[in-house]
Amino acid sequence: MCKDGIRVVIADDEPITRMDLKELLSEEGYQVVGEAADGFDAVEACKQSRPDLVLMDIKMPLLDGLSAAKILFEENLADTVMMLTAYSEREFVDEAKHIGVAGYLVKPIDEKSLVPSIELAVARSKDMRKLRKDMEKVSERLENRSIIEKAKGLVMTREGMTEQDAYDYIRKLSQTKNLSMRRVSEIILLKSGG
């Protein structure tokens, strides 16, 4: 994965940590597009810049990193979130996994492991997004097929048509009215109360 073009927001209440991370990431070819000292500012920075990656501390004032990460995922404001924290307690790790955090690094950060960890987390997140999109497409196709099948069955019963004739009837209506077969099927079902 090419580091160039990967846009990063750094959220940590320690200015020194933010500065060190920004310097390190910039040297490695990442583009730091925002910084934040608490979870609220992190969410705002992500609303403005829509980063590829957020590196976020867990313990921050006002809104902690895990709560902020949850908001980022719910509002689709960042592709990948990694937690940087001094806390390695099981409860934090479990919550991070549950929310969908892609990486968890314990401070002090080992500079040699930071970049490989980031690259793996970003690649994994990209794969997961693609998988979700593919599943949504398959789900939509199945739903379309189900609705068309119901309408086809209704037309067969109501008009005494064969399965192929009922399908052709729906397809012809779709072409004539410039509507999808699903929409034509929905109208047929709506009209019949089905």
From TrEMBL:
Record-annotated membrane-spanning stretches: none
Domain ANTAR: 128-189
Record keyword Transmembrane present: no
Boundaries of every Response regulatory domain copy: 7-122
Residue numbers carrying 4-aspartylphosphate: D57
A Pfam short name: ANTAR
Ubl conjugation in keyword set: no
Role noted for this protein: May play the central regulatory role in sporulation. It may be an element of the effector pathway responsible for the activation of sporulation genes in response to nutritional stress. Spo0A may act in concert with spo0H (a sigma factor) to control the expression of some genes that are critical to the sporulation process.
The protein's name in its UniProt record: Stage 0 sporulation protein A homolog
Record organism: Intestinimonas butyriciproducens
